[in-house]
Amino acid sequence: MSTKVHDIRSISLNELNKFVVNNNFPKYRSSQIFNWINKCSVKSFDDMTNLPKSLIELLKVNFRFNFSKISSKQISVDSTMKFAIKLHDKLIVESVLIPSGDRVTACVSSQVGCSLDCEFCATSKLSRMRNLESYEIFDQIMLMNKQSIENYTHAISNIVFMGMGEPLLNYNNVINSINLITSDHGIEISNKKITLSTSGISKMIIKMADDNVKFNLAISLHSAIQSTRNKIMPFSKSFPLSQLIKSLEYWYKKTKRKVTFEYLIWNGINDDFEHINALVKICKRVPSKVNLIEYNSIDDPRFSKADELWVNNYLNILKENKVSASIRRSRGKDIQAACGQLANKH
Ligand code: SAH
Predict the structure, then answer these.
(1) 15 is catalytic
(2) Is the CB of 197 under 6 A from ligand 1?
(3) Any atom of ligand 1 within 6 Å of the Cβ of 162
(4) How far apart are CA 182 and CA 191, in angstroms?
(5) Helix or strand holding residue 229 (H, E)
(6) Residue 129 and residue 3: Cα distance in Å, rounded?
(7) Each residue of 276-316: pLDDT tens digit?
(8) Cα separation of 344 and 346, whole Å?
C-alpha cells in the first residue's frame, strides 16, 4: 500500500496501523493521523502538527489528498446552477444547485457515468467509468455548499442523490459520505433533509433498512407493470417489481418511513388506465407518495411527454385513492441540468 494515488482519507484505521508499525513508528501515531483526517478535516499533511517531521514526510511520499475542483459552471434562466467537477484522475461528474425560496437543494452524483440502461436518461448513454470514493462525494457536497453560500447567500438545505449514477451500486461510499456530511466535520445537515434515489436494487434496499439508515428513500418507478418496465429500464428484468415491492414493504416495516415513487408519463408508453391502476395498487401495498416528474427530452423519438390530460388523470385517480401525489416541474432545462439530462455537455 504505497501507491501515491491513495487518498489518505480512504485508508482505514486498521490499514493506518499497519502502515505506521511497518515503518517503525509507534501504533498510537495512526490514531493521531486518523483524528486529524476524521475529526479535524485537515487539508494537508503539514497541518498534522503533533506528528514528527519524519512521519509527515513519509505520509507525503505514500499518500496524497485527491481534492476535486469545479471546472465549469452554467447558470439557468431559473437560477439553477450546474457544475462540472473534475476529479483527481481528470474524470468529470456533474452536480446541480436548485434554489427555491429559502431552500437550496444540491443534486449530487454517486458514480462517474452509470451502469444502468434506463432508455430515457442521458446519463445512461455514458458508460460507468468508476464509483466515486466517499471523500469525493463529500468534497462534491462541500464544494456545492460553498457555491450555495456565495451565490444564494445560504447553505444547502437539502441533498438529493439524483445526479449521475446509481447510489445503491456504490453503497458503502454513499453511506460513508452521508455519515461524514451529517457530522460536525461536514455541514451538520439532518438526515431528514437527504434523499437517496434508486432505480430499485431490492437487495440493497433491504440492507439499508437493516442498517437503520435515517435518510429518505425515493424509487424511480415509472411503471408498475413489469413488461413496460422491462422495455424502458431493461436492467429491471434482473430486478423484478415483485422483489422491489417486497423490499419496500420491508423498508416500511423497519423504518416506518414512506417512500417516494418518481414517475414519468410518456405518450403511448404509460398514459392509460391500466398503468394508473397498477400504480395505485402498488401505492396501496407500500406506504408511499408519488412525484410525477416532468419528462425532459433527450431527443429520442421513442419518448415524448404525455398529454397534460394524462398527468391530470394520474393525479386525480391517485388522490381519489388517497395516495398523495404532486407534480414536480423541471428546473435548469436550458442548461441540461434537469433530471436525466446530466451527460457532461458543457
Ligand atoms: N440512478 C438513480 C439516481 C438518478 S436520479 C435513480 O434512477 O433513481 C435521476 C432521476 O431522474 C430518476 O428518477 C430518473 O428516472 C429521472 N430521469 C431520468 N431521465 C429523465 C428524463 N429524461 N427526464 C426526467 N427525469 C428523468
Answers:
(1) no
(2) yes
(3) yes
(4) 7
(5) helix 226-232
(6) 20
(7) 999 999 999 999 999 999 999 888 999 999 999 999 999 99
(8) 6
Give yes or no for residue 140 having a pLDDT over 50.
yes
181 has pLDDT over 90: yes
Task: Give the contacts of 150 (CB within 8 A, at least 6 positions apart).
Answer: none
Contact 343, 121 (CB under 8 A): no
pLDDT, tens only, 67-111: 999 999 999 999 999 999 999 999 999 999 999 999 999 999 999
CA 33–ligand 1 middle distance (angstroms): 40
State the pLDDT at residue 2: 44
Question: Can you tell me whether residue 305 is helix, strand or coil?
Answer: strand
**Tens-place pLDDT, residues 141-155:** 999 999 999 999 999
What are the cell numbers at 90? 481528470
Ligand 1: residue of 98, 108, 197 to mutate (most ligand atoms within 8 A of CB) is: 197
C-alpha–C-alpha distance, residues 144 and 166, integer Å? 20
CA–CA gap between residue 265 and residue 281 (Å, rounded): 17
pTM (two decimals) = 0.93
Tell me, rounded to whole angstroms, the distance of Cα 42 from its chain centroid: 25
- Three-state helix/strand/coil letters over 82-110: EEEEECCCCCEEEEEEEEECCEEEEECCC
- Answer whether 332's CB lies under 8 Å from 98's CB: yes
Place of cell 427555491: 100
